[in-house]
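To fix ideas, we reproduce below a protein record of this kind.
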Amino acid sequence: MTAAGDDFADALRRAGVVALWQKPPYPPRAEAPRHWKWAEITPLLERAVAETDVETAERRVLTLVAPEFGATDAGDRVTSVTNLSANFQILMPGEVAPAHRHSMAALRFVVQGSGATTTVDGHACPMAPGDMILTPAWHWHEHIGGNEPVIWLDLLDAPLIKQLDIVSFERPDGPTDLADPTLPLSFPWDEAQAALVAAAPDEDGVRRHRYQRTGGLPALDLVDCSLWLLPPNRPVDLPGGNSNSICLAVAGRGDARVGEESFLWETHDVFSVPHGNPATFGALDETTILFVGSDREIFKRLGHSGD
């Protein structure tokens, strides 16, 4: 660059201006898929119990982090895919994770243990394996332990809410019991499983059950979630699209190729399908079920579904 060019660059910096022909302002972000193994997570959850309690931590949560987002121990960009964060949370017998509410919407899919209860605006939702409980944005919720440890997967739209800079959080200073909910808060496993088995197979042989509200709306406004019963000995191909997905293995084992990555997954493993990555799933057991959470509803409402 010439001396004159150097002067121009200095002037741009002083003015807070970027010359678009010199540097692309929105470089594509290469997000690799990630596989989180249950066999590696469980000892960490056990250690988390020894390291802290809910009185200190309020929620004993381990977030599944994609390193491409530059997450640090200080909590910067702690996310699993672009618009969703996935956590494993553990609650021990007799513990109470106290009530709070926030601008992030969340769902809880129970992985292991039963007897705990999540209350949402004072309405009790029992927790057993396979149950899904919603805590929509700005709804009071607390978790009350039972007679055994309970572990669940949290899925939140927290990265989107943080990106929009509208994160709000509040603890109660009075009662948290509100009127009867206008949307379902709990989806018991036995009902969801029955609907999944009764669903007609799609062209790819997958039986799908979508969690939804009246009128075909997704269970949560911006988080679409469903159960997939994969056909044995038949690969399922998914084209790459704009949306991002988090997949939890509810039952069985399988293999997956996501983008350029290949891996074997087992029950309770979690893996991501970031946007733009074509994927192929294969079931290795007769009964192989995935819980799939997606941000496709966000892109649908923006007119960029691309799926």
